[in-house]
C-alpha cells in the first residue's frame, strides 16, 4: 500500500497537552511536517508530555526520533504513551537516548602538542611493527630449517610457480633497467672524469658501481615493488576469504603452505636476477664507453678484469640472499596480517612495498659499512 502522509495535532483541551500522531511516520513521509514540528520544539517546557499513537500506522527510527524531539521527554522522565502500537514503545525507548545529546567536541590542541602526539604515536607504531617483524622472522627461520631438514614437506609445485611469476617474469624489466643504469653511470663518469683527463677510468667506475652496488640494488628495488605487493595481495586475499583459517582447521601450517615456498623461490631466483642485472649493467656501460671514448672491447674488459676483479662481483652477490629473505618475509607477513576488509588489503599492500624498500636501503647501507670496515 502507498505511504500515508504523516499528520499530527496538539490537543490542549485537557490538563496536559497531548500530541496525536496519525499516518505513516517514516523517513519518506516526515519531511512535509518538519516545519510544523519545529513550532512544537520551540515551546520549551510547555511541549506535550503525552503522545497518542492510536492513529499511527507505520513507524521507523527516523519518525520516532522527530516525535521524541517534539515531546517534553528525557531518559529520566520519558513521555507517556497512550494507545496501542506494535513497535512504537520500543522505538521511542531506543531513540530517547540520543535526543538532546550533543557530541563532545574535544578542545583544540596546540600545533606543537598535536605534532608531538603524532610523533609519539608513530614511534610506538614503528616499535610494535619492528617487534612483530622480528617475531615473524624467527618463525620463518624455524620453518625454513625444518624444510631443509625434511625437503619432502616442501610444496615444490607452488615454489616453482612463484619462482616463475616473481623471478622469471621479472627478467625483462630487471635487465632493461640495469642496462640503462649502466649507461647512465658511464655517461656521468665520462662527463666528470674528462675534466681531469681521466676518462679511461670510467671503465672502473662502471665495474665497481654495477657489480658492487647497483646490480643487486636495482634487482631488490624491482622485486620489492613488484613481487612483494604480489605476495601480500595473494596471501591477503586468502585471509579475507578465510582460506587460511580453513588450512589451520585442517591441521595445515600457513607458514609451510604459503611462506616457505615464496622464501625458497626468491632465494633461488634473486641471485640469478642479480647476475643478469650485472651483465646488463656492464653491457650498457660498455656500449656507452666504447662509443663516447672510442675504446675497444678488448681494452674495456681487460681493464675491468685487472682493476675491478671478481671480488667486487662476489661483494654484490653476497647481498642477494639477504635481500631475498627480507623481501619475502615482509611480503608474506603483511599478507597474513590482512583483516577481513578491502581497505586493510590495500593498506597492507602499501605497507609491504614501503617497508621492503626501506629495509633494502637500510641493509644496503649496513653492508657498505661492513665492507668498508673489512676493506672489501
Automatic annotation (TrEMBL):
- What is the superkingdom listed in this entry's lineage? Bacteria
Function per UniProt: Could be part of an ABC transporter complex.
One GO term in the molecular function aspect is: phospholipid transporter activity
Main location group: membrane
Higher taxonomy: Bacteria, Pseudomonadati, Pseudomonadota, Alphaproteobacteria, Caulobacterales
Keyword Transmembrane recorded: yes
Tell me the protein family, please: Belongs to the MlaE permease family.
The family database entries (Pfam families) matched by this protein are listed as: MlaE (PF02405)
Q: What is this protein called?
A: Putative phospholipid ABC transporter permease protein MlaE
Whose protein is this, by species?
Answer: Candidatus Phycosocius bacilliformis
Q: How does it sit in the membrane?
A: Multi-pass membrane protein
Give the keywords, sorted: Cell inner membrane, Cell membrane, Membrane, Transmembrane, Transmembrane helix
